[in-house]
Design brief:
Elements: H1 2-10, E1 17-23, E2 27-34, H2 41-44, H3 68-78, E3 82-88, E4 92-100, H4 115-118, E5 125-129, H5 133-145, E6 149-153, H6 156-164, E7 173-177, H7 185-194, E8 205-209, H8 214-222, E9 227-230, H9 235-246
Parallel strand pairs: 5-6, 5-7, 7-8, 8-9
Antiparallel strand pairs: 1-2, 2-4, 3-4
């Protein structure tokens, strides 16, 4: 519930955030309601997919990889529960979580496959530039559980500084959010490519972006990034993209 409450507070500039809990003997119902900016209907349909974030003027000030809601949804499903959302733009949002109070004795609940079982990123060192602390923590957890070593920074300037620091631990790949304060991902990629670092020209830089327009793709490639990973994006596709560059299948 912490992530749901955190999101509610973050997107409610004025108004209230309400948490209510009830049960009917068979299941518990948790409602997190806010009077924040709300969201469009089309976004409500995909909000629980990984790497999804509404591309609105207000949303752009709350940047991130968009993993939080997907993680919440997976955890609720693991508990044999359900999560839903109702929202009206400029009016507010209500998330409803329903969880069973009693386990079904005849039901065998399989353990969720761990990232290690799905893919092996063992030994891969990743520099991740992400300004949203919660989403950064979730993404780092997903990558480290798959075996990767992750260094996180909060903006493009810090990414450039870390990459060029001769005393810093070297990295094999850079995961770069496009919209960040201080310095965005595009400018950071340009500076990395223009530097005198021995790996400046061949270090893979993967861009995370909510935009899917062709001109945006051209801007990303022109900045020196290797590939655009459009949101929403499955976690498995992220893993596959990382592996493909590390193994040299894509250049």
């Amino acid at each position: 519930m912490t992530n749901l409450l955190s999101n509610a507070v973050k997107f409610t500039i004025h108004g209230t955030v309400t948490l209510s809990v009830s049960d009917d003997g068979d299941k518990i119902r948790i409602l997190v309601k806010d009077t924040g900016c709300g969201m469009k209907k089309e976004f409500q349909e995909i909000i629980f997919q990984p790497f999804t974030q509404e591309d609105t003027t207000y949303g752009r000030t709350q940047t991130g990889t968009g993993l939080g809601m997907a993680i919440i949804s997976e955890l609720v499903q693991l508990l044999n529960g359900a999560i839903s959302v109702q929202s009206i733009p400029d009016k507010g949002t209500t998330f409803t979580v329903e969880l069973p109070l009693h386990a079904d004795a005849d039901q065998n609940v399989p353990a969720a496959p761990s990232p290690q079982q799905q893919v092996d990123l063992g030994g891969i060192r990743i520099l991740m530039a992400e300004d949203n602390a919660i989403n950064s923590m979730i993404a780092e957890e997903l990558l480290t559980q798959a075996g990767a070593q992750v260094k996180t920074v909060e903006n493009g300037r810090q990414a450039v500084d870390y990459f060029l620091d001769p005393d810093a631990e070297p990295v094999d790949l850079i995961l770069m959010d496009i919209r960040m304060p201080v310095m965005d991902g595009l400018e950071a990629a340009r500076r990395i490519r223009a530097s005198a670092h021995p790996r400046a020209k061949d270090i893979p830089i993967l861009a995370l972006t909510a935009n899917g327009l062709e001109e945006d793709n051209k801007e990303i490639l022109d900045a020196g990034m290797n590939k655009r990973l459009s949101k929403p994006l499955s976690v498995s596709l992220l893993y596959e993209s990382i592996l493909s560059y590390i193994k040299g299948k894509e250049r």
